[in-house]
Structures are given as structure tokens and as C-alpha cells.
Amino acid sequence: MRDFLFDVPWWAPTLIGIIGIGLFVSGNRRQKTNTRTAGLAVLAIAILWSLVSYLVDTPKEICQKQTRQFVKAAVDRDWTTFQRLLEPQADFKFIGSNWQIDGRDELLDTMKVDVDQIGLKGAHITSMQADETDQAVIVKIRVYSTQDISMGQLLDSDWEMEWRKPAATWLLHEVRGVRVANIPPEMIRGSLRKK
Q: Which pTM value belongs to this model?
């Protein structure tokens, strides 16, 4: 119900607004006060619905925005923002392998070294999907990135970000690597300098 009210696709209130305008014009031409008033009421509902949807962020929308901030922080090497978005117990896992990093501090230290080592130049999120459960929001993203290690060639990768709200704000609980350009995780891990 919350998504229906606050995370509405743009076309829904637009369609309702067009219907309201149509009713208003039709009632005005035929001098039907009830139809004209109904048209104005429908148009007002569409405008109100659009405003509410725009002004109120759902947990999914908050986590999607923070996912963009997280990716940007890694590219910009803004480690303060990167750390602020992570839970103290945050961890990293690569699905289908035993590659795992436990804890925010270890994850932060590893990312600092790895981002510099690969020479990350940019990352662009090309698709994003958020799913909400009782205790988490999981944001699935596809990212195209450029880095020195691939000689500037774009690499596509899939990631899952699990956000939880332990207190007042949503924080990143787990980062899951799903796929990086069809390269096995062991090969990626092996190419990264050991700390």
C-alpha cells in the first residue's frame, strides 16, 4: 500500500490528471456543473498524489539513493561517506565463493587498497531494482565501470546491497558481489594485492 501511495510511477497520476482535464472540459462545454466539478476533483487528486509521491521517500527510494551515494563514494574515494553508509558489522561476500570480508573497518581498509590498485576511474549504475522485506531492503544493481587494470575497457558487474535500519537511518549491512564481467571470483581475488 505504501508503494502505491508514495512510490507511484509518473504515468499513473499523469493519466488520472488527463482524465480529470477531460471531464472538466466535457462538463464545461455541456454546462454540466457536476461533471466539471468532478473533473476538477480528479485533477486535484492527481496533483496531490504526484506531490506526495515526490516529497515522501519510501525505504526503497532511500536505499536506492544511498546505493548511488555508496558507488559514487567508492569512485571519488570519499571514505568518510563510504564509512558513514556502512553498519559497524557490515560485510562483503562474493556469491559462489568463499571470498568474504567481515566488519566495516576491514571492508573500508580493503576497499581503499583495492580501488587504488585497480585504478578505478568511474562507475555508472545502468539498472537498479529494490525489493523490501520485513527487516531489509535489497537493492540489485548492474554497474559499468572503467579502471586502469582493464586498460580503460568497460567492465559490467552485478551487485546486491542489503540495507537495514538498526536505528534511525538505513545502513548497508552486506555487499554481495554477484558477477564481474564473467571473471571467476578467485581470479579477481588473486589479481588483487594482498595487504
A: 0.77
Closest CA relative to residue 57, chosen from 13, 11, 7, 9: 7
Query: What b/e readout covers 77-90, taking b as 16+ CB neighbours within 10 angstroms?
Result: eeeeebbebbbeeb
Tell me the pairing of strands 100-102 and 86-94: antiparallel
Report in angstroms the alpha-carbon separations of 28 from 18, 31, 32, 42, 45: 15, 5, 6, 15, 19
25-42 residue pLDDT tens: 998 888 888 998 999 999
Surface-to-core class of residue 20, CB atoms within 10 Å of its CB (0-12 exposed, 13-18 middle, 19+ buried): buried
Name all domains of the chain by residue range, CATH numbers in brackets: 2-55 (no CATH), 59-191 (3.10.450.50)
Q: Are 42 and 23 in contact (CB under 8 A)?
A: yes
Dist CA 86 CA 82 (whole Å): 7
Strand 86-94: give its sheet, edge to edge: 100-102, 86-94, 171-180, 155-164, 137-147, 120-132
Residue 121 identity (one-letter amino acid)? K
Cell of 37: 466539478
Query: Does the structure show a pLDDT above 60 at 1?
Result: no
